[in-house]
Amino acid sequence: MTIASSDISQWSIASSEDYQSSDDGLEPSTPPIVEHLHASHLNSYSHILTVPTHIRTAYLNLQAQSKNLTINKDNASIVFANIHSPSHPTYNVEIGILNKVERLTIQDLEAARAVAFTLNHPSSPIFNNVKTISLGAKLATAILNSSFHGCTPVNKVLGVLGCMLDPSHFCISRPSSTKGYDELWPETLFENLSGLLNSWSKLESYTSHGFWLYNGECLPPTIHNINIKLPDCPYSPGSAGRCTCHRRLRDGLDTIISMYTGEVDGVLRDKIIKVSNLPHITPGMITIDQLIRIKIRWEGGEPVRNLDGGVVDIRVGSGEVLRGLRTTSRLSTREKQKLVSAVVEFDWTQWKSR
């Protein structure tokens, strides 16, 4: 929304005279809001603190959007404009709003630097109630392009976020560019994130938007649920797009299952990976035999066989349960599906027939 000067003239902006003293210092009285001011004016902003400072005061008591805060390079200076000045009339109110934020989205490296600086130089504690931290595509790209080792600028920022925040859920969007990386770039990204994720003692789950993110070598032990939201399949009836569901399923399962040993990554014991947005994968395809066929069809190879000549099973679930099972022929279809679902859950609500 473009703010016209005529609109601003209709808004009553509180000044220092609109605040009264108390034993705790300056506390804001309710800013006067004229009848022309409506909550709909906030629709153009992701959060109350992203409203420009010269008109923000009138909105400080309209906190319907205060639980979700998105920060980027364009609004970071506005969001943190007054919190380093305890004498500012709106200081206590703005600190209070920041401490109501439950979901903090940091879109780019510039915003991450601003958050880290503010956390590292606090006049008062902020973001005390953050439960979810979400990193945008641009910030994910900066982390991917950084080095896991050494005291790089990115690692310094992540170090502060790791020390000063402690969410229970983490989200990340697919990097906006993976140029120069092979197909293993998600593992590299996870490695670069590992210091941050392992510093959060309350972290129980994470969600990757648009790609399969996993690296068992640095998976935090506190995580129990992994949510993979894959990008939309380009195929639809009558379109020229090719279905990518099988390839994405294969690529994802390759990161957690070894076709050479038939074992699932041991760190996934007692954990669940929830996969969504595979509209052309049916429940019947998620069996050990079907997964082997998908693997062979896409890579043009032969199945791995043991000394007895039997196909090695893709063992999903507890190693104790599967101990001694040498071939998939000993398992019924129901047993195979049960074993697969022991680690991977699929969202069938988006299933579409081809």
Description:
The relative contact order is 0.07. This protein has one domain (5-350). The two termini are 42 Å apart. It is 29% helix and 13% strand. Strand 9 and strand 10 (263-264) form a beta hairpin. Helix 5 crosses helix 7 (153-164) and helix 6 (137-145) crosses helix 8. It is elongated, with a radius of gyration of 25 Å. With 354 residues, it is of the alpha/beta class.
Strands, helices and their partners?
Blueprint: H1 5-10, E1 19-22, E2 25-28, H2 53-56, E3 68-71, H3 76-79, H4 91-98, E4 103-106, H5 109-120, E5 132-135, H6 137-145, H7 153-164, E6 169-173, H8 185-198, E7 205-209, E8 225-229, H9 245-254, E9 257-258, E10 263-264, E11 272-276, H10 288-299, H11 319-322, H12 333-341, E12 344-346
Parallel strand pairs: 3-4, 4-5, 5-6, 6-7, 7-8, 8-11, 11-12
Antiparallel strand pairs: 1-2, 9-10
Number of strands: 12
Helix content: 25-40%
Number of separate structural domains: 1
**Helix/strand order, N-terminal first:** HEEHEHHEHEHHEHEEHEEEHHHE
Strand content: 5-15%
SS content category: alpha/beta
What's the overall geometry?
Answer: elongated
Mean pLDDT level: 74
Strand order in the sheet with the most strands: 3-4-5-6-7-8-11-12
Tag the structure with descriptive keywords:
29% helix; 354 residues; elongated; two-stranded antiparallel ribbon; 12 strands; alpha/beta
What can be said about this structure in brief?
The chain has one domain (5-350). The chain is 29% helix and 13% strand. It is built from twelve helices and twelve strands.
